[in-house]
Amino acid sequence: MTKCKFCNKESYVKLKSPKIHLCKEHFIEYFENKVEKSIKKYNMLNKDEKILVSVSGGKDGHAAAWVLKKLGYNIELFHINLGIKGFSESSLKAVEELAKKLNVPLHIINLKDITGKTLEDIRGKKCSICGITKRYLMNKFGYEHGFDVIVTGHNLDDEVSFILNNILNWNIRYLAKHEPVLPAHDKFLKKVKIFFEIEEDLILKYAEAENIPFTTVKCRFAEKAITLKHREYFNELEKLRPNIKYQFLAGYMKNRRIFKCEEDENFEFRECEICGMTSAGRICSFCRVWKLYKNKNKSNSK
After folding, report:
1. ω into residue 213 within 30 of 0, thus cis?
2. Residues forming CATH 3.40.50.620 domain(s) in the chain
3. Per-residue pLDDT at 302
4. Which of 212, 228, 236, 222 is nearest to 60 (CA)?
5. CA 214 to chain centre
6. Tell me: the pLDDT tens digits for 89-115?
7. What is the pLDDT of residues 191-237, one digit of tens each?
8. Strand partners, 10
9. What spatial distance separates the first Cα and last Cα of the chain, rounded to whole Å?
10. According to the model, what pLDDT value does residue 152 have?
């Protein structure tokens, strides 16, 4: 039996860096210390801020809420019911259980109440539209209800796959935005990724160690997402070069300034003509993909 480096208990996890075995109790301590160090390193949060944590039902957002609550931050939970058959029901159940365990407020938004449709009802790239929808609705809710910051469960695996995808497509503007903290501006709240430097596997081990409720049901629309393929590449590389994900991210962080666009820094945002939220164009991405401008045209014609 392999034992924990710090006690005689059975090993629960083997870390890659440093290469040590930890029992469940020492792993929980290690994980929470690692998150706290990231928060301090990037000046992510402070205890006076009102924090809205995005929870979709999965382990990452739920673990983010759990660890922030344990560390003493002022959090509330935000969930969007996307109306995806099988997935949304399971997600909602897990979210409600999490809120009950943490004893924190839970805010639930039903997509159909806002757009008249669910994600099931639309055509096109559902993952892309889902991302636009989640970012918009949680920011709008947070802005209108006096929150200071939004926390998501994006992890190291997410970040390296996003960066690789944007390099392959040379999306320079997106390559400039992979930061652990996106500062607030106009009606956009500050956004924070507390798991920016933490692998997905460790988050899963933490969620299981702490008995955090989360759903294992996968969204069927995400199965064809190209970023999932990029994760597979990195997982294969990791077998040959342990810690390559973190090295790739660290290299990006060291050199990310080369992707900054002068025109972006001088860009002036405006208010969306439909919803009034901050937008890069006359109509924001959310109102455009959900065609909410048609509703406004109908109202004006009456």
Report:
1. no
2. 42-261
3. 44
4. 212
5. 15
6. 999 999 999 999 999 999 999 999 999
7. 999 999 999 999 999 999 999 999 999 888 787 778 888 888 999 99
8. 3
9. 76
10. 97
| 262 pLDDT tier (thresholds 50, 70, 90) | low
Angle CA 209–162–154, to nearest 5: 30
Place of tokens 């200071």: 148
Tell whether 219 is in a known binding site. no
- The residue that leads in pLDDT, 8 or 55, is 55
Q: Could you tell me which residues come within 8 angstroms of residue 229 by beta carbon, excluding any fewer than 6 positions away? A: none
26 is in an annotated binding site: yes
What is the second-level CATH architecture of the domain 42-261?
Answer: 3-Layer(aba) Sandwich (3.40)
Spatial CA neighbour of 286 closest among 110, 133, 138: 133
Which two structure tokens, joined as six digits, stand for 120?
């099931």
Q: Amino acid letter at 106?
A: L
Mean pLDDT of 240-260: 91
- Among 114, 87, 98, which residue's Cα sits nearest to residue 55? 98
